[in-house]
């Protein structure tokens, strides 16, 4: 019992550390890259600075909750052992936790919906109800509303999840909830279904799916898979695929936005001369470090884990998870940076 209590405490501390790291990095990145909300000139009214800051904060909370949900569902549906199609003890625990994080994801998305509408329309939250028609016409608001519906349904499905088949249905719902907001962000270049907008959006969807599986899957291993070496081996193979997909799509999406469409590849110039490019470069550095950590896992800690010496693997995995959340904070800042 004492050991279990200690594991729960360390898990909570790691979770708080992960969220805090992402939040601090996001704020610093927004300020440094020029994406931070700015006070309105005298005489003009708008949503207000606190509401403007609430948009990226709620986005980060929603993203972290989405990653936690996706990782827990992935663990239950794919990674953790099951018997005759029924989830084991840890699989059931993963689904119960995912039901909670899906609820948090839904609430954060509702908050993001309201604050985003307030900022785009340019009115205080107290006046938003009077502009409900305008808010409902915004693509960003509609996408977030769809995400809220899917996450709410997901929370209900997960609360009653007892089988692998249901967990796989929840995995599909998670993917659907992730997709909606991606269709109205930076990927929709210039509006309309142009070649570059379709390419950028498709690349971004693959990027986010892969990141959710990689980060969420690792977090789920730390929480549910400590006694399941086979689950770690399955995740290791999946992580390699995710890393390749993230690196490829991240480079492609960044270059489309940094001038690759019209002005030639922006790798040499805008990656170091614009705030957006600087954040892309910072994400690339974080990604390179994560690839190195993955190499260390395969070379040293996975063999040690197989030899019943797990300490080094779990320590490195905890540090890896924090670095991943730093990358998530950079990604949220990137989505708010011109």
Automatic annotation (TrEMBL):
InterPro entries assigned to the protein according to its UniProt record, in alphabetical order: CopC/D, Cu-R_CopD_dom
Membrane-spanning ranges: 12-33, 53-80, 100-123, 143-161, 168-189, 195-217, 238-256, 276-295, 316-335
Alphabetically ordered keywords of this record: Cell membrane, Membrane, Transmembrane, Transmembrane helix
Pfam families: CopD (PF05425)
Topology term for the membrane: Multi-pass membrane protein
Cellular compartment(s): Cell membrane
Domain annotation Copper resistance protein D: ranges: 230-334
PANTHER family for the chain: INNER MEMBRANE PROTEIN YEBZ (PTHR34820:SF4)
Protein name, as recorded: Copper resistance protein D domain-containing protein
Organism: Kribbella sancticallisti
